[in-house]
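To close the chapter, one final illustration. This time we ask the reader to focus less on the individual chains and more on the assembly as a whole: which components sit near each other, and how the overall shape emerges from the parts.
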Amino acid sequence: MDNYSFDRIRDNIRVICGNISEACDKYRRDSVKVDIMAVTKTVPPEVVNWVFEFGLDLLGENRVQEFLSKKDSYNKSTADGKPPRIHFIGHLQTNKVKYIIDDVDMIQSVDSLRLAQEINRLAIAHNKVMDVLCEVNIGGEDSKSGVSPDEIISLLEQLAPMEGIRVKGLMTIPPPDNSDIFLGKMEELFNNIKDKQITGISMETLSMGMTHDYVNAVKHGSTVVRIGTGIFGSRNYV
Ligand SMILES: *Cc1c(COP(=O)(O)O)cnc(C)c1O
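The assembled structure is written out below.
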């Protein structure tokens, strides 16, 4: 924990909150609150717990193994006395859904029918309904998972009747170059799908924006920004 500073993380979160409210005032006409997710990869759970003191209550997890090793060390309640919300945001293999189904509040990275079917099957078996987002590969990059914009509607229509799944919106990681253009495309896609009012699907959450592009993402209608480096500092991979 030597490299992490309580004061610096507090200041980072303050700056991010300020930038987001400034961007909302400047660019947004809606009054949708922008949620700030703390992305926890490589950060020790004792440090992750600090963010709850600074008013955050949403964590983003990318790796199943890492999450399982940390989850029991997370505080059971945040500043408002409620438990933290935990969203899975990394690429998820179908055979790993069983390890997280009871411990996450949302899976943001649904990128195939097969994965959705497994989440649905296990959610029903565990007597729950899992909130999900569909991940869109808005830049069409080979290196990234996500459904292509051409295929998203057909995937959503297949997910709509599933009783163990509740689709709440879309998630994306745009290409780092020209991210503004792709954030704009994503906004357009999200609004088009919202206008279609597909039965059984709600389009209330648009998860986009990371440390380098969250202000632009807010400008383009994001409702959840996912921030790692900007909160905790740069990651030291070991
Ligand atoms: C790591 C990660 C983030 C956060 O990235 P930063 O640039 O560190 O803010 C957001 N979303 C996903 C899916 C990630 O894997």
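The mean pLDDT is 96. Residues 130 and 152 are 19 Å apart (CA to CA). With these observations in hand, you are ready for the problems at the end of the chapter.
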